[in-house]
């Protein structure tokens, strides 16, 4: 896991190839069907380029949208392993209904399905990293299918800009401060994908519970759950709030974060700010995620958990067959 983090920037050196690209017809709407780490690229793309009409579907089947809406969209089945049953079902139903379809996978049933049916697809490199650690590959693959050459160039620049090893100290320091506590990630709505990604890394790498929410919505409900009194303060004492702050956020959301932090600290709650840092919006996003990676790895060391594999997920898959 540590080596995968240190080498993360090299993923952006990869040049994705869209096989059967001639079958891609021009569309302006995209629906990515994927679970877990396999839809994170779409989440980040929506955060970075909200003007691109990309939605995520994480369930069996296909979205219950009008036939016209579906036919005007490109459905993209994404599964890092190629064996995620929800993504395979998404692809099978899309093809059965004659909908525009493309595939992103490293191998497995989904890649075989794409090859058999001569669908447009991108085959991910034969890496051994976990899906959550292959985000660079998956984002490049998605953007290649969208045929956005400008964005592909922007992503390629990250290979020389990101410095994963330099962020380890920050992650280790945060991990130490989180010992014995449950992380709760807060971000703006525009950075929701980043906060969710942090949560996933704490769950899968650190093997600890973690939760997230976004401003300004949380100020209208969740916040009141931490207005502690003597009979309820014990429920919140194990929580540690991590505010992912971004100078590009709406000024009112920045103000909301600072006021909320003040209110929480006045009630004895633990709060840490982790600011976005970097020269470009993309660099800020991935720097934040790399800090999350390092924090999760060092939490795994603190608790003595296995950082790379996800045995409970594998156990579940065997039981659900």
Automatic annotation (TrEMBL):
Alphabetical list of InterPro entries matching this protein: Glu6P/Mann6P_isomerase_C (IPR019490), SIS_dom (IPR001347), SIS_dom_sf (IPR046348)
PROSITE patterns in the record: SIS
Superkingdom of source: Bacteria
GO function terms (MF aspect): carbohydrate derivative binding; glucose-6-phosphate isomerase activity; mannose-6-phosphate isomerase activity
Keyword vocabulary terms for this entry: Isomerase
GO biological process: carbohydrate derivative metabolic process; carbohydrate metabolic process
Extent of the signal sequence: none
SUPFAM superfamilies listed in its UniProt record: SIS domain
Domain called SIS: residue spans: 20-161
Record family assignment: Belongs to the PGI/PMI family.
Annotated protein name in UniProt: SIS domain-containing protein
Taxonomic lineage: Bacteria, Candidatus Tayloriibacteriota
